[in-house]
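Regression report. Comparing outputs from two consecutive submissions.

Submission 1:
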Amino acid sequence: MKGAFATGATASIALAGCSVEQEPGDAAAEGVDFGLPEGEGEIVIGYINWDEAVVATELWRQALEASGYTVTAQEFTEVGPLFEGLSSGDLDVFLDGWLPITHQTYMDTYGDRLEQLGTWNENAALTVAVPTYVDVDSLADLNANAELFGGRIVGIEASAGLTEAVQHSAIPTYGISDLTLETSSTTAMLTELDSAIAAEEPIVVTLWQPHWAYAKYDLKNLADPEATLGEAETINVLARTGFSEEFADVAEALGTFAMSDEQLASLENLVFSEHGGDVQAGVTAWLADNAFTDLVA
């Protein structure tokens, strides 16, 4: 994820209203027991290129296609048009609704035309993090250690809600005047993080949980005693009105879907680190060692 403001998160470069349809790949790995009732029909899952949304969408694409459904995963570059599509019925499901803060503005606008099917993670949070070998523990101590970090906080996209929260809430609250929040992209931030850790150099980055970086690296979140980044949120499955009536078995399964921080981090790490971003291959490999039925128990 991302962020707590209207733009929603670590979205890719924002092209308002633009979306890209992805052709479904091969069905799931052979021999995987998804435990879902057989069905039929077309289901369109909307998502934005946030790590947890990408892997959760592919996970459910594989599960639903193996159960007889035709699934289209449709990527959006901004969260607003996605909520519009969901509320109008052009999309069926969105697996990455952060509540009660990040996407609450959209729920206020479109919520009466949506179904909230369930919560699948209860520990989503915006963070500012450093490697564990860095002797700084709190945002309140960041400014006093500006020189240690070269006067830089390595951020993600300028449009991300996380960026807004750090720039307009954390920085003024803690008087962080000697460090500059530098924005570029999530990919660039992760590249810098990887290089710094390989060299055991100090670095401070904007991040969020759950994220695969916590599985790959030894990181610690800087304490935020003034709660400038908000409290922990939940990640929810949202659907268009009428979806649970038309696809009752699918809606029931989505309503029971749950992943722990550890499960999600291991899945993301396998996809984005070990499989180099090959989402289908990474998810398929993860399913070979992790029972999907445990996620919908």
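Submission 2:
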Amino acid sequence: MANTSTRTLRLLSLLQNHRYWPGTELAERLGVSVRTLRRDIDRLRELGYPVEAQRGVDGGYELAAGAALPPLVIDDEEAVALAVGLQAAAQGAVEGIAESSVRVLAKVVQVMPARLRRRVEALRAMTVPAGWDGSARAGVEPGVLTAVALACRDSEHLQFSYTAADGRHTDRHVEPHRLVCLGRRWYLVAYDLTRHDWRSFRVDRLTAPHGTGSRFRPRDLPAADAAEFVRAGLDNLPRPYRVEVLVDAPATTVRERIGRWSTVEEVDAEHCRVRMTADSLDWPTMALGVLGADFRVLDPPELLEQIHNWGALFNRARA
């Protein structure tokens, strides 16, 4: 059974088809009992949704004819979380739900209050898909994300304080371009007006971003898109681990599964060479695990040791 919030959204989606639903059929679609369905209907009514009921053996439910749906009752942080989650799903995070996620996101945004709708629409429009690689790590304030997204959308100069990897704090004045979610982190791609060059900034290191009110004419980004710009910058960073593996699978198959985060070279029709750079060996271990193919570790030796340790741990798993 889905959790209450998810089930309530699903129930609302079914009722929005503007058709009459027999109670037993609607309960079956939701995978709940008729009694639970009645509680969910009451919950929608408490939120202001005009759900009408017909009593009797063939009783059922429908939205009141011609009734306008009230605004979706969520706060700012919930609106951002909803947009980020559905957008990730729409990019293929889970097989088979991408199209449904797009439809749900469109419906939800439509019934949001205007203030939240503006923020969520900006976040959707100004985020460049960089492939699914899990949820973005915690630590990014929803307000920071929406403030940056709005500045990107409106071509408005943005100022913020930035903390570099070595702990140094600097004040930045930029022309924001796009947000990118990659490697479980959010990045802002922007033109730095102080350094007179393009930069990518980790959003979790931004403090107090705010628009200045002045607009700018967008510049041409020196890359195919913002995601490619961020990837190129990350590839040039010093990484403690450079992984090289021979995989017993066609290069096309391996690229489909982990090509967004690695370099895949064809050896022959049935084998390929995979290279990755990483801050830790956890991600390469997981990536190789999802391939479902035999492989040989060429470098580094520590990777093979970690894989054996993880294998021993999994073998000790109990029901």
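Expected: both submissions complete independently.
Actual: both completed, but the second showed a warning that disappeared on reload.
Relevant detail on submission 2: Residues 131-138 have pLDDT under 50 and may be disordered.
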